[in-house]
Amino acid sequence: MESNRSNSSNASLVFRLFDENPNSELGILDSPQRPLQAPPPCFEVLPSEVPTSVKYVTEPLNVGGVILLKGRVSTHEVFALGNSDLVPGKYEGGLKLWEGSLDLITALSCEIKVGKLSFAGQRVLELGCGHGLPGIFACQKGAASVHFQDFNAEVLQSLTIPNVNANVQKMPEHLATDTNKNNNLETRFFAGDWGEVHSILPYACKDETEASEMAQLNRGSSYDVILMAETVYSISALPNLCRLIKKCLCTPQGVVYMAAKKYYFGVGGGSRRFLSLVENDGTFSASLVSEVADGSSNVREVWKLLPK
């Protein structure tokens, strides 16, 4: 999620291809970090918690031949904010439909067509879901369980859950569901910070030691597929995101699909910065699935992470 703020003398960016300090996190861009705030509590958001006071309007969206319904809600109505992309610690941009979500769906569709991916019967987790369209796509493709996580409960209540409802109602009858559970599909919604939300996710390990032990088993209680789009914009959040993925993907057959901009100028994150962190950690191997350089924005990428 790109920042529109101009750089000042007190907030200059430093370009470095590699970091010469072996104890630091490798990356492409460095930028000053804001003081960390205490994260909000983590909790499950129930489908019944959709607010009636927020106006929700749907419109069709064609993503490479995949037709989805997306909602529009007012940032002012939900957060009492202006038309802002991001307010750190309060609103993480989930009401806006970011390009990476569409790139991710397109890439997933291609992976399915060439036989490299199947959602059938899988446990899926979408991190930083916002609209939740990649997770909804997984629902349409036969996933057994799709869990949606976002920093803001308000985003889940006012946008994600209504989007899920709007789309699953158009699914074939044998896949139709409400947002609770039936014999075919389970959808659940979780709010919280990446540093703590694993404690309430049903298929996450409590710590990295347990995750390492579960990785030695064939399956265990783990997610099979993790989806995330435009989640790697903040440098300070990247370590927690990496740790969360390791706690949630404890099966050797698991896979992570990540869509992001190559660099997020002004905030310092990006796909390459996160991949440097992943490479140093040594748990996953990464391969480029697709690249979008259409001139309308910074170069966008979709990456696949597999356990080593």
TrEMBL record:
Q: Which InterPro entries match?
A: Methyltransf_16, SAM-dependent_MTases_sf
Localisation per UniProt entry: Cytoplasm; Nucleus
Family per similarity comment: Belongs to the methyltransferase superfamily. METTL18 family.
Enumerate the Gene Ontology biological process terms.
methylation
* Alphabetical UniProt keywords: Cytoplasm, Methyltransferase, Nucleus, S-adenosyl-L-methionine, Transferase
Annotated Gene Ontology cellular component terms: cytoplasm; nucleus
In Swiss-Prot or TrEMBL terms, this protein is called protein-histidine N-methyltransferase
Which SUPFAM superfamilies is this protein grouped with? Answer: S-adenosyl-L-methionine-dependent methyltransferases
Output the Gene3D superfamilies linked to this UniProt entry.
Vaccinia Virus protein VP39
Q: What is its EC number?
A: 2.1.1.85
Task: Return one GO MF term.
Answer: protein-L-histidine N-tele-methyltransferase activity
Say which enzyme class the record assigns.
transferase
